[in-house]
Amino acid sequence: QVQLVESGGGLVQxxxxxxxxxxxxxxxxxxxxxxxxxxxxxxxxxxVASIARAGSxxxxxxxxxxxxxxxxxxxxxxxxxxxxxxxxDTAVYYCKTTWFRVDYWxxxxxxTVSS
Length: 115
Prior knowledge:
Strand content: over 45%
Oligomer: single chain
Order of helices and strands: EEEEEEEEEEE
Largest sheet: 7 strands, mixed
Structural class: mainly beta
Mean pLDDT: 97
Helix content: under 10%
Radius of gyration: 13 Å
Low-confidence stretches: none
């Protein structure tokens, strides 16, 4: 079955960096777009970044120039490099994919940015 497992979250000071990883299994990773979402307390889940199967990235305006999404098809892993972190980036970060029209989510990883 499809599984997505995020890691790499933690507590960091404003201006710092973190790299999130999402290890995928149970589907043809190289054939699928992958996405990072986040959800802050009391807010709706929002799309942060996407990467197409060919590697073309897209970003939410709030993270452009600070975050970089990438993928390693040999390792079935998608990454989110987060630089210049701000307190408003504090959220649970999830990776997501769609396989045969079913959405699959990881369990999430907490990112906390202190001011």
